[in-house]
Amino acid sequence: MALQFKRVLLKISGEALKGNEDIYDKDKLGDVARQVIKLAEEGLQVGIVIGGGNIWRGKLAGTLELHRIEADYMGMLATIMNALAFEATLKKMGFSKVKVYSSLEIKTVTTAYNYRDAREKLDEGYVVIFAGGTGYSYFTTDTGACIRGIEIQADALLMAKNGTKGVYDSDPNANPNAKFLDSLTHSDLVVQNLQVMDSTAATLSRDGNLEIVVFDMNGKDNIIKIAHGDLEATYIK
Ligand code: UDP
């Protein structure tokens, strides 16, 4: 099957890169990188947002008796670590056309986010990593992914899940009769409060008319397959 998109924003959670004990599993990082390289070489323009949950999440604030704001900035820094880990992995595998933009300024290792530059880089065949989430506390990387997806005018946000093939009408782990939904509208997503992304991200994707494809990244070549429309998934349009 041919590529079904020209430009995508791939959202991966930090958890997807996590090892049993360590914050990273080398094989998981390498597997995502291998698939992204393959797609980029086929001509797909790939932007990526990686969460930070393998390292730190703002909601852990209470464990250190921190204010949520400090904890959220720590979470955003975690996403920058993940972006650098992914960039380094791509380069180690021989793919050097990669650019890391960050919403939080860390000049030594990232470039300040600029949507026009990012679009140009994508046109030039660079894999573009968007780190730092939205750059604001009280948001998530899902929201960051929607904003970046809209701003780079992606054909779709490929929303990778770990072990769930898409969206169900109820929690499939709790309800064996949960019904799989292969297509939805943005309004369904917002109104039915389906557990795909937080409500801010859902509303934004609707306002920006960003198509979302929710798919299971756990499976051989599933990122490659979804880019070719060759995997069961939920399409939100
Ligand atoms: N975060 C934030 N603003 C953003 C994006 C992320 O404050 O725009 C913080 C927030 O604390 C969040 C953490 O960074 O818990 C890690 O991001 P997220 O939980 O979205 O990562 P994922 O679950 O996708 O790994």
TrEMBL record:
Activity modulation: Inhibited by UTP.
GO cellular component annotations of the record: cytoplasm
Subcellular localization: Cytoplasm
Keyword field contains Cell cycle: no
Catalytic activity: UMP + ATP = UDP + ADP
InterPro entries: AceGlu_kinase-like_sf, Asp/Glu/Uridylate_kinase, Uridylate_kinase, Uridylate_kinase_bac
Enzyme class: transferase
Main location: cytoplasm
EC number: 2.7.4.22
Organism superkingdom: Bacteria
Start and end residues of each Aspartate/glutamate/uridylate kinase domain: 6-216
Residues noted as binding UMP in the record, renumbered to the chain: 52, 72, 134-141
Family (UniProt): Belongs to the UMP kinase family.
Record's subunit section: Homohexamer.
Entry protein name: Uridylate kinase
